[in-house]
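Researcher: Next entry in the queue.
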Amino acid sequence: MLKIFFCLKQVPSTSNVYVDETTGVLKRTGVASKMNPYDLYALETALRIKESNGAEVVVGTMGPPQAAAVIREAYMMGADEGYVFSDRRLGGADVLATSYTLSQAIQSIGDFDLILCGQQTTDGDTAQVGPAIAEYMGIPHAAWVSKITLDGDGIDAEQQLQDVIETVHMSFPCLATVQQDICMPRLPSMVRARETRDREIPIITLDQFPDKNPDHYGLSGSATNVERIFPPDNSVSHEVWASDGDNTQRLEAQLKAWKFI
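Model: Structure for this entry, 261 residues:
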């Protein structure tokens, strides 16, 4: 049977997030969270393959133990197994360290034919983690995929690139990041919620990874670090010009002062 792994992420459900001033990373503990919206399309893609061709859909998320909530949501939609990759030593990871962590976590669970990811996350927006996972695992990958068709020993993936639509064939195992045009996600099922409420969600730690060196993960394993994160200044100043005269010259002078002209 085809085995599909789906990378899921829990993201803040509000724009009022807090940043650790020392490390420059988001504070996630205690913050209201939700499933990354882009991941819904990847999960729906996996479930449609399961329904039409037969497959086992396994989901995994990297985060604090509370991230198990999004695994429960994936169960409510039809996923078969779920894991949380949680360890304090994984915290503060940049794109490269996150990708390496997920590649190790996936390998600690087993072998998969197809790995699916959303095109990006709403809290990072790099759109780089999926392809980087594939590079670390040494498997073919395609990004910005809008259609997937099973074809013998692999898939045909239609990519929506900037100027062209390109179709590539990839043999299993392979990875694809999918975009919103690929399908319409289903709603969670209350029937499945009752059926899966006691289903186990194992927590996988660094000690269960093939590579157990803590220097390769989290802040220690990150090639980059954030120098500073701060909320944008929302203060807006304005002035009112009376319309009882010609303000053309005044406007021209102001635009020149702002170096717009």
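Model: Residues 2-216 form a domain with the Rossmann fold fold (CATH 3.40.50.620).
Researcher: Noted, moving on.
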